[in-house]
Specification:
The protein is α/β, with parallel strands linked by helices. The chain has two domains: 177 residues, 3-Layer(aba) Sandwich (Rossmann fold); 140 residues, N-(1-d-carboxylethyl)-l-norvaline Dehydrogenase, domain 2, CATH 1.10.1040.10. 49% of the residues lie in helices and 11% in strands. The chain contains 15 helices and eight strands. It has an eight-stranded mixed β-sheet with strand order 3-2-1-4-5-6-7-8, with helices on both faces. Helix 9 runs antiparallel to helix 10, helix 13 packs across helix 14 and helix 14 packs antiparallel against helix 15.
């Protein structure tokens, strides 16, 4: 088990008492990062037995095996215990469970603690972004405390202390700076932005394009195809982002192009792996039955497909991924239909 705790001296910077809500791979990696830096951290797991296992073994053997968790991190199955006295809250619950977790935590939230959402997705049904879910459920005075983390960052590599750069979006400059300082290490660099919508849409929609890239890889279609999908995928992400109010420059940055490239090419990408298996001939049901962790892109594809229609934005790659996932369309037919669309100018 790796144990590379290298906490920094917090003298001169603010020590936070951190609650990380969600003990999957990403939640555990962020909790480890903060605890390694000397911030007392409590990691909440929805299942009490999982929390007990993590606390006893000092490892999340299910979702982030092989990494010893520092003594400054404690796991708990009690939401009340996790949030008690917290000065910083990091939310890492999958989109489909986010609303319920906010409603459960709302009575216990410390009134002045910044909230960092590391959840990436679009809610089914309502088509709300993660920020909109928080703003719907939390009182207006708490909205300036909300921030949103995005960018190219596999959990395993963050836990391995591989140099990583991410974006943090929030509407209050002082809150952004405080969260930036809490997360910053010599291996984890945080850039800030006001563009909440851009960071959120980049983080959500790249998972859809990663499924498309995986399908191409599963079909054995080569590097040209993958590069084309990434580039045209960014074009349709940008179109939807602009229609929703995002700054297009955000989508050429870490939370857009950066996260897109990582998720479409990295072997650790769960969404890409879904696509690879589709390309190899497996059904969606077979793929999901064999997965232990959530691939957000499967649900996000349906939400993105519906949101693009609501906003009147053309998203041909997303439409073909939707057809492959939910309408049983053969993956090769989806690729052919993309390639034989009417000719057009690249900037359209």
């Amino acid at each position: 088990m790796q144990d590379d705790t290298r906490g920094r001296d917090l003298e001169g910077s603010r020590q936070e008492t951190v609650a990380v809500l969600g003990a999957g791979s990403w939640g555990t990696a962020l909790a480890k990062l903060l605890a390694d830096e000397g911030h007392p951290t409590r990691l909440w797991a929805r299942r009490p037995e999982q929390a007990a296992d993590i606390e006893a073994s000092r490892e999340n053997a299910t979702y982030l095996p092989g990494f010893r968790l520092p003594d400054t991190l404690h796991a708990t199955g009690s939401l009340e215990e996790a949030l008690s006295g917290a000065t910083l809250i990091v939310w890492v619950v999958p989109t489909h469970g986010l609303r319920a977790s906010i409603e459960a935590a709302r009575p216990m939230l410390p009134p002045d603690a910044p909230i960092v959402s590391a959840t990436k997705g679009i809610e089914e049904g309502s088509l709300k972004l993660v920020s909109q879910i928080f703003e719907t459920l939390l009182p207006t005075p708490s909205h300036p405390l909300l921030t949103f983390l995005g960018g190219p960052s596999f959990a395993k590599e963050v836990a391995q202390r591989m140099p990583t750069a991410v974006s943090l979006a929030g509407r209050d400059a002082a809150v952004r700076e405080r969260v930036q300082q809490a997360f910053a290490t010599d291996r984890f660099r945080v850039y800030t932005t006001e563009d909440v919508i851009g960071v959120e849409l980049g983080g959500a929609l790249k998972n859809v394009i990663a499924i498309a890239a995986g399908i191409a890889d599963g079909l054995g279609l080569g590097h040209n195809t993958r590069a084309g999908l990434i580039t045209r995928g960014l074009a349709e992400i940008s179109r939807l982002g602009v229609a929703a109010g995002a700054n297009p420059l955000t989508l050429s940055g870490l939370s857009g192009m950066g996260d897109l490239v990582l998720t479409c090419t990295g072997e650790l990408s769960r969404n890409r792996q879904v696509g690879v298996q589709l390309g190899e001939g497996k059904t969606l049901a077979e793929i999901l039955d064999g997965m232990q962790m959530v691939a957000e892109g499967v649900r996000t594809t349906k939400s993105a497909h519906n949101l693009s229609r609501k906003l009147g934005v053309e998203m041909p790659i997303t439409d073909q991924v939707y057809a492959a996932l939910y309408e049983g369309k053969p993956p090769l037919a989806a690729v052919t239909d993309l390639m034989t669309r009417p000719p057009r100018d690249e900037r359209e």
